[in-house]
Design brief:
- The protein has 7 helices and no strands.
- By secondary structure, the protein is mainly alpha-helical.
- The chain folds into 2 domains: about 10-70, 434 Repressor (Amino-terminal Domain), CATH 1.10.260; about 80-110.
- Helix 2 (about 25-35) packs across helix 3.
- It is elongated, with a radius of gyration of 19 Å.
- About 10% of the residues are buried.
- The mean pLDDT is about 90.
Length: about 110
C-alpha cells in the first residue's frame, strides 16, 4: 500500500538554489527562463511556498535536471550544508555543553580517530 508522500519544501528550495548557482544563473534569469516572477523563485528557494508539478517541471527544464534531483535529499551533504546543520543543532546549547563538544572534537583530531 502506498502512503501519502509529502514534498519537503526546504529540500526542494535548497536543491533549486544549488542547481541554479551551479549553472551560474541568477534568480532573475531563472525567473525569465521559467516565466515565473523573481519573488516566486525566491519564495520557492526559501521553502516558503508550494509549487505545482507544472512549475517544478518548468524549473527542471530550465536547470536541465530531473525532478528527483530537486525533490529528493542528497545522500551526501555538501560541506557548507553539514556545517550549517551542525551549527543549527548547537545554537541553543549551553556554553558548558559546547565546551565539551569542542574538547571532544579536539581529542578526535589529536588521536586521528576520523
Amino acid at each position: 500500500m502506498l502512503k501519502d508522500k509529502v514534498v519537503d519544501l526546504r529540500i526542494l528550495g535548497k536543491n533549486i538554489k544549488k542547481h541554479r548557482i551551479e549553472k551560474k544563473l541568477t534568480q532573475e534569469k531563472l525567473a525569465a527562463l521559467t516565466n515565473l516572477s523573481i519573488q516566486y523563485i525566491g519564495n520557492i528557494e526559501r521553502g516558503n511556498t508550494t509549487s505545482s508539478l507544472e512549475t517544478i517541471m518548468k524549473i527542471c527544464i530550465a536547470l536541465d535536471v530531473t525532478p528527483n534531483q530537486l525533490l529528493l535529499s542528497s545522500s551526501k551533504p555538501t560541506l557548507n550544508t553539514l556545517i550549517h546543520q551542525i551549527l543549527e543543532s548547537l545554537s541553543d546549547q549551553s556554553i558548558s555543553f559546547l565546551v565539551h563538544i569542542y574538547n571532544y572534537i579536539q581529542l578526535l583530531k589529536k588521536d586521528k580517530l576520523f
